[in-house]
Amino acid sequence: VHGGKGIWGMPKHQANLDFLVTPTTVSSQYDVDGLLACRIAIARPRPQALPVRMSSTNYCAFRGMLMKSSISVTGLADVAFGASAQAQLLLGEAPQVAGLKTLGLSARPLFTAYLPSTSGVLDDHVESWFLSGEHEAPAGGDDLRSVTGLGLSQDWLDAPRTLGVPTGWAP
Which end of the chain is more exposed for a tag (fewer CB within 10 A), N or C? Predict the structure, then answer.
């Protein structure tokens, strides 16, 4: 959090997070202030080790600015397509995910992918633009005080209360 906000100026917040890997499933859950934010679980695809190389760009509104950052990732992926792709996405009541609920996401995935090991590079070039007028950032966003009060602790929060493996899956 300290580095994300203080160094990169990105909206980072400490919350309860887990990442669980079993021989048949992979899941991750994110809780904020005791509320479920998001949980994704997939049935592990059969091992294939397909080479993956991709880049992604993140946009976020923070401190009255629209910010852009990019990352490049490489790894080996196990992938399932169509009917063999089994996944469950749960969006909870945490306010941070309210906008995702309006997207009308399908309950059936087009594909699932599991990358047991990846390597990524966060580009050190960050772009930002001031938000104004109809694109103005919402009131009450973080300001410099959200960084100056952060300590140097590296303590982790407890993992969220895991919801278990989705029912009806044939591992």
Answer: C
Residue 135 has pLDDT above 60, yes or no: no
pTM of structure: 0.75
Could you list the beta-strand ranges (E) of the chain.
16-21, 25-32, 35-43, 50-62, 65-81, 87-91, 111-114, 118-122, 127-130
Structure tokens at 129: 């633009």
Residue 67: C-alpha distances to residues 14, 61, 96, 147 (Å): 20, 6, 18, 17
Using CA atoms, how far residue 100 sits from 22, 26, 33, 41, 159, in Å, is 27, 21, 18, 17, 23
Q: Which two tokens stand for residue 154?
A: 């590296």
Under DSSP, the state recorded for 11 is -
Bridge pairing between strands 87-91 and 50-62: unpaired
- Which tokens belong to 130? 């001031």
